[in-house]
Each structure stands twice: as structure tokens, then as C-alpha cells.
Amino acid sequence: MAGRLIQIDKEEVTTPVGEVVLTGINTDDVYFVTVTGVEVSTDANIRTRVAISGSADTTSNYSRAGKQFKDNTTFGNSTSTNDNQWNIHFTGGNGTGEINNFHYYVYNFNNANKHSSITVHESGLNKLQVLTGMQGAAIHTVNQANDGLSFISSAGNITAGNFVLYKVL
């Protein structure tokens, strides 16, 4: 049956943590990551990295491009090259209602001869209580096999959230 999702890994954050790592990518299939209810301990962005053998790759090989949407202003661009992480999410905080939800389609992670990449779709309420969203893509500009993704907060800890990795069949 086409279009099935097989759960590979799941992390539910109920107490503050510095990092969440999802692993288990071990085929050339497309994978899907869904993250809901993310809260952080201080005003900060969620940052994402590829994982190799379950550990974050901190090299400066991360590039991204996207379009930001906010209910109080016009569209904005979000781009960077040669960072040591993907800074693709808006700034959340610990105020009432500040929450981040996003999902990725994950491509070429198991293929050591191609760049790993993701597409990003995000929505939530940012630190200024502004409804915010983003759509875009990101690439890790190194040919290497990766087995997962690492998520950190740019300051403080991740205090809540559900992180799930699926294989798409």
C-alpha cells in the first residue's frame, strides 16, 4: 500500500532537555518528521542538525531558504549558507501560548553520495504572540550518510514537545 507511515523513533519531552535526537534512518526511502507542541525555557529558536551515528554533525555545512509568514506584517525571506546548524524556526519562548509545530520531509539521508536535505513546514505562536509560519528547504552540503536529526534550543532548554520520525512507504 503506497503512502503508509512507519514509526521509526519517538521522543516526548516532559522535562527540560538540552537536545532531542531522532535516529533510525537506514534506507534510501523518504522519511517524515513531525514535531508538535514545542516549548522552550527562554526566548530562543529551535535549531536542527543532521545526526551521524546518533550524534549531531556540528560542521559549517548547513544552508537554508524559506518564506516566513506572520499575521501582523508582510512576507519575509529567511536564508543562510555555511552555518553550523539549520536556523529555520521562529523564536519561541516560555510565555502563555507560545508554541511551535513543524514537519519535515527528509531526503537522501542514508545516501553517502548525495547531500541530505529537508523541506520544512511550520506554524505556531512566537514570543511576541504573533501567529507565524514558514515554508522552505534546507540542505547539508556534504555527501555523507546520516542516520537522524538533532534538535536543540538556541538558548536554554526544550521544555515540551513530541518529536516523531517516520519512514514513508
Describe the structure.
The chain is an all-beta fold and 169 residues long. It has a single domain (5-168), classed as Jelly Rolls (Sandwich), CATH 2.60.120. The chain contains no helices and twelve strands. The strands form two sheets. It has an eight-stranded antiparallel beta sheet with strand order 1-12-3-8-9-10-6-7, with no helix packed on it. The termini are close together. The relative contact order is 0.38.
How does the SSE layout of this entry go?
Elements: E1 5-13, E2 19-23, E3 31-40, E4 46-52, E5 55-56, E6 62-70, E7 76-83, E8 99-107, E9 115-125, E10 131-143, E11 148-153, E12 158-168
Antiparallel strand pairs: 1-12, 2-11, 3-8, 3-12, 4-5, 4-11, 6-7, 6-10, 8-9, 9-10
Question: Summary?
Answer:
With 169 residues, this protein is mostly beta strands. Helix content is 0%, strand content 59%.
Assess the beta-strand content as a share of residues: over 45%
Query: CATH architecture, please?
Result: Sandwich
Overall tally of domains: 1
Give the N-to-C terminal Cα separation. Answer: 8 Å
Q: Considering DSSP H and I runs of 4 or more, what fraction of the residues is helical?
A: under 10%
Task: List the uncertain runs.
Answer: none
Strands, count: 12
Structural class, please? mainly beta
Radius of gyration: 15 Å
Shape: globular
